[in-house]
Design a protein that fits this description.
The protein is an alpha+beta fold and about 230 residues long. The protein has two domains: about 1-45; about 55-225, no CATH class. Strands 6-5-4-3-8-9 form a six-stranded antiparallel β-sheet, with helices on one face. Strands 1-2-7 form a three-stranded antiparallel β-sheet. A hairpin with a 7-residue loop joins strand 3 (about 95-105) and strand 4 (about 115-130). It is elongated, with a radius of gyration of 27 Å. The chain has helices spanning about 5-45, 85-90, 145, 160-165, 200-205; strands at about 55-70, 70-80, 95-105, 115-130, 135-140, 150-155, 170-175, 185-195, 215-225.
Length: about 230
């Protein structure tokens, strides 16, 4: 066999080996990524053997309107019970985002109801292991979009204390009384939910199929322009 043929043969074999090694490296990388995703979901979603799986629950226990200083104010109270998987995710350092929304519509028999106003509060709840404190950020805009700097921050020693700040809305201005007609009917739609879109991607896929992560509620209140008088 000539030196030229031998060189071509060795070069061809080396390229083949390189291609196989590169393919194995890419496969190994994808396997590591897949295993990490599976581990993340299991680590946060599977409760320990000492616990019994508990589904998350939320409901509106109070919803009423008041008038004060020319404004229509909203008072609300929620009952929030976090499931084992959700609470464990918080304890392990994963922040959760919640949204409270209220929409006010005025009845119109001749067309679609007119939107008077929509208000929202966005919450970011996170546990800080170094200080063993709970931090709650509140903003009018999605916190994942505007960042923490534009939000109000509070710290709490326990999770129940932090959740208590989310449960209640006091004197939340819905609209000015001057915006209400003298003889009209209105519909208030109050909503609360866990903002799944801001969870890590594996949890976004899981949230639709596991009840622990299905945390949302809605309540409607019908009233006239005489409310709160």
């Amino acid at each position: 066999m000539s030196w030229v043929n031998m060189t071509v043969f060795i070069t061809h074999c080396w390229k083949s080996v390189q291609f196989k090694l590169n393919g194995m490296a890419r496969t190994s990388l994808w396997l590591r990524v897949l295993l990490w995703c599976v581990w993340s979901v299991c680590a946060f979603s599977v409760p320990s053997h000492a616990q019994t799986a508990v589904a998350s629950q939320v409901e509106v226990s109070e919803l009423r309107l008041e008038r004060s200083d020319g404004a229509l104010l909203l008072q609300s109270t929620l009952r929030i019970d976090l499931g084992n998987a959700v609470e464990e995710a918080l304890q392990k350092g994963m922040p959760l985002y919640f949204v409270t929304e209220a929409e006010l519509l005025r009845d119109r028999w001749y067309w679609y109801d007119k939107k008077i106003n929509t208000i929202a509060r966005h919450y970011r709840l996170a546990y800080q292991p170094l200080t063993r404190m709970w931090r709650l950020n509140v903003s009018r805009e999605p916190i994942g979009t505007v960042g923490l700097a534009s939000s109000l921050s509070q710290t709490f020693e326990t999770l129940p204390e932090a959740l208590a700040a989310i449960r209640r809305t006091v004197n939340w201005k819905l609209t000015d009384v001057s915006e209400l007609g003298s003889d009209n009917k209105y519909t208030l739609t109050f909503k609360f939910r866990l903002d799944v879109s801001q969870l890590p991607r594996p949890f976004q896929m899981m949230a639709g199929s596991q009840s622990e992560w299905n945390l949302s509620t809605q309540k409607t209140l019908r009233f006239s322009s005489e409310v709160g008088r």
